[in-house]
Design a protein that fits this description.
With 180 residues, the chain is α/β, with parallel strands linked by helices. It has a single domain, classed as Endonuclease/exonuclease/phosphatase (Deoxyribonuclease I, Chain A, 4-Layer Sandwich). The chain contains four helices and eight strands; from the N terminus they run E-H-E-H-E-E-E-E-E-H-E-H. It has a four-stranded mixed β-sheet, with no helix packed on it. Helix 3 runs parallel beside helix 4. The protein is globular, with a radius of gyration of 16 Å.
Length: 180
């Protein structure tokens, strides 16, 4: 499951997130925009299902922006390794029940587009480190096409740069159902 939670500093919000995660029963959880600088075990238990609180990696928020967390069910997956960057958290897993390996890159890209080029270069640098299938999930804060933007001007050069990066990575978008 991938979810931009838009902050986990409020106990009521944490309870809502935890209830939603428990109802979905995911094997891996990718949260973006946690806005947290540190995550204690006590704090993780406030927003994660019980069997996920001890198996997490996170990227700290910068000021009031960002923060990425990936958590997994240790009964289902073993962590093989991770790469932590400012806007991405890449975790490689092996199944406890099969020989399958896969990698998830949890993304919370910069909303300040002056940093978008560096973020996209970082994505390209990750490719050689990927084991098995690769899932890119999260909030890219970028668009492919002007039709994807609902307001304001479109930076066509940034759209082109994003599309070029996606093409170089050979990424295939999985469509969201019933969501914009």
């Amino acid at each position: 499951m991938s979810w931009n939670v838009r902050g986990l500093g409020d106990s009521d919000k944490c309870a809502i997130v935890k209830d939603a995660l428990i109802s979905v029963n995911p094997s891996v959880i990718c949260l973006q925009e946690t806005k947290l600088h540190h995550i204690s075990l006590f704090q993780a238990r406030s927003f994660l299902p019980p069997n996920f609180a001890k198996t997490i990696h996170f990227v700290s928020a910068t000021g009031t922006r960002g923060g990425i967390l990936t958590a997994w069910n240790a009964k289902t997956f073993v962590l093989d390794g991770f790469i932590s960057r400012r806007h991405t958290l890449t975790t490689a897993f092996s199944s406890t029940e099969s020989q399958h390996q896969f990698t998830i890159t949890n993304v919370y890209a910069p909303s300040d587009h002056r940093d978008s080029k560096v973020f996209l270069e970082d994505l390209l640098e990750l490719r050689p480190h990927i084991k098995g299938a690769w899932i890119l999930a999260g909030d890219f804060n970028l668009i492919w096409d002007a039709a994807d933007k609902n307001s304001g001007p479109v930076n066509h050069a940034l759209c082109t740069l994003f599309n070029d990066t996606i093409n170089k990575l050979a990424v295939v978008e999985l469509p969201l159902l019933d969501r914009l």
